[in-house]
Amino acid sequence: MIKDKLKRPLHDLRISVTDRCNFRCQYCMPAEIFGPDFKFLTQDEILSFEEIERLSRIFSKLGVKKLRITGGEPLMRKNVASLITMLNQIEGIEDIGLTTNGVLLQKQSQPLYDAGLRRLNISLDALDNQIFQKMNGRGVKSEIVLKGIETALKTGFSIKVNMVVQKGVNDSQIIPMAKHFKEMGVTLRFIEFMDVGNTNGWNWDQVVTKKEIYDSLSKHFKLEPVDSNYYGEVAKRYKYENSETEIGFITSVSESFCSTCTRARISANGNFYTCLFSSKGHDLKTIVRSNHDDEQILKIISDIWEKRDDRYSDERVIGSLSSTKKIEMSYIGG
Ligand code: SAM
Ligand code: SF4
Ligand code: SF4
Q: What is the pLDDT of residue 260?
């Protein structure tokens, strides 16, 4: 097992399969920037499924046990279920998850399940349509995502719902969302609004911290902490009293968790990033398209990981950030 400079193993790989999306969430792909003239990656610029499979196989030899398929919107990549089938056959991979905005789930839920996928994270930031339609930048109603969630539950998926909370935008939805998903018995996770990329106009004033969210939930529900399941678990988990239903918090801003961060990322165009907030990736696409054999690629990846000392969120907390230009979320996938 390889470790980085801060003794963190490589355990998870997040793979962005497309930079395209059918939403324009203001906090991720603001419509003013990702407009009709925006140049998305071409077919040739993105990794093929065979290239993703090969890289995942190599990463698994270095200790990766969990894969997450993300984007952009991963369900916009044609036939993504066939990628799941390929990844499922890799020895050493114990768990595959996919993160989606849920819009295409009504159609794709069954093929994904048939391909062997069992876990979905579905993003939904509000139940209220005025709020949700504005946030997703495409006027899509929350019912569409709720139907996707319903379909996926019926198909047999294990589901977590992710809600990014932004002050003055959707914080009024914290309690309605909690009530709704408590009733459904689905885990809801609150994500602190992060300063990913360079285009989402982030500032501290728009962050609703875990403490603030917890305090407002406490006025309505009794919550009990749940111990973390494994080293490097990102969410701080709680369950409702007298219930098995959980809620979680992703506290990247207020309580960073870099010291146990075991996640690597590959962007849609095949760059390898050792941190969500990296300014520079390592070009694996050129390497897989050259005549390097698997052993040589493994050595390149392991050398990069062993040099890794990223701890961006820790540095944000202590106010010592130096990096300025960062990779956009839609490339790297969150
Ligand atoms: N399109 C899919 C979706 O929205 O679920 C997958 C990709 S999206 C980039 C992955 C996750 O990142 C989503 O849950 C999204 O809400 C979250 N995200 C995007 N921008 C964010 C930001 N600035 N702060 C916190 N979370 C963010
Ligand atoms: Fe698309 Fe997901 Fe980004 Fe929203 S958060 S714009 S759904 S990639
Ligand atoms: Fe990991 Fe970077 Fe996030 Fe810290 S800031 S938890 S190192 S991805």
A: 93
- Residue to substitute in 19, 21, 200 for testing ligand 2 pocket (most ligand atoms within 8 angstroms of CB): 21
Whether the CB-CB separation of 75 and 120 falls below 8 Å is answered with no
Distance of CA 8 to the CA centre of its chain: 20
Tell me the H-state helices in 185-245: 210-218
Q: Check pocket membership of 21 for ligand 2, CB cut-off 6 A.
A: yes
CA–CA separation, 183 vs 75, rounded Å? 27
> Which pair of structure tokens corresponds to residue 102?
């849920």
The residue ranges of every structural domain in the chain are 12-332
Report yes or no: 19 and 72 within 8 Å, Cβ to Cβ: yes
Mean pLDDT of the chain: 94
Gap from CA of 100 to ligand 3 centroid (Å): 21
Supply the Cα-derived Rg of the chain in whole angstroms.
Answer: 19
- pLDDT digits 0-9 by tens, 20-35: 999 999 999 999 999 9
Give the whole-angstrom CA distance, residue 81 versus residue 270.
20
Q: Tokens standing for 139?
A: 């006027």
Cβ–Cβ < 8 Å for 69, 97: yes
Three-class secondary structure of residue 330 per DSSP: helix
Distance, in Å, from the CA atom of 72 to the CA atom of 80, rounded to the nearest integer, reads: 13
User: HSE of 7 in the Cβ direction (CA atoms, 13 Å)?
Assistant: 2
The span from the CA of 103 to the CA of 220, in Å, is 30
- Is the C-alpha dihedral spanning 238, 244, 247, 250 positive or negative? positive
**Over the stretch 103-155, which tens digit does the pLDDT of each residue have?**
999 999 999 999 999 999 999 999 999 999 999 999 999 999 999 999 999 99
- Is 107 in contact with 117 (CB distance < 8 Å)? no
Rounded distance from Cα 281 to ligand 3 centre (Å):
14
Domain 12-332 top-level CATH class: alpha beta
Q: Is the dihedral of CA 252, 256, 261, 267 positive or negative?
A: positive
